[in-house]
Amino acid sequence: MAAGMGSRFGGLKQIEPLGPQGEFLIDYAIFDAVVAGFTKVVFVIKKENYQIFKETIGKRVEPHIKTEYAFQDNSFIPKKYLAYLKQRTKPLGTAYAILCAKDKINGPFAVINADDFYGRDAYIKAYDYLDHIIYNHYGIVGYKVANTLTTNGVVKRGLCEVDNNKLLKITESKVTLKHHKIIAQALTSEKVVEINKDTIVSMNLLLFTPDIFSILEEELNFFLVRNQLDLSTVEYQVPDILDMCLRKNIKTIDIIETDATWYGVTYKEDKDEVKTALTNLTMMGVYPHTLWKNNY
What we know:
Helix content: 25-40%
Order of helices and strands: HEHEHHEEHEEEEEEHHEEH
Mean pLDDT: 89
Structural class: alpha+beta
Number of helices: 8
Strand content: 25-35%
Number of strands: 12
Shape: globular
């Protein structure tokens, strides 16, 4: 998913050079995915970003993996709702972004944010899960919250309530580090609580079978009816879809835990920390010094 513009960061985060040789975070994502066994990538982007995406990210990864593009536009929105979207400046949400890739996907697949670094272990576990995915099951690669935080401000995380590696509930929350403590507040609550560093969170590394598209289309209609007067701001989000699947008992959501460290640039101040981490991983030999010229 690469249609977001990163409002807090300011600009198109997906093409921010962060690696030792000017690599983008998406370069590392695709590199790790190929190493893990994935054979195709679909970029969900804004149509107006196609050329810059193609000339930067596309030309780097296309020699190494089958690459396609899907546009996050209003193609799946019934005409009667289009007028309500005219004032909207941001994409409609993560669930809608996935739906926009419907015509490009015909097998089990993983979803990621294009401007996040997930770590190779996460892709290896994701590929293995998808290779053996069970009917009526979806998956979330779950991170320990302490491995996902920034020291530069508040972040949003999907806090997962888990039992026997199954998701019971996901709560979108604001999370921050304060005096070496991890503090969380659900977006729908005023209550502030301290959480354990090993609390599992979703970072939008999601694992689906193609039947998710029919669910997304059906739920989109309900979403539009409920929110037609607020379509300039409200978002059609994946956590709401997963919650619905659990409430209606139509899917089991498996949690696949990883010890990987997540990196991202939520704030401009995060850039130096991410650059240092990528340089260290390169020096350790996890990644080659010139990412795409090595034969892996």
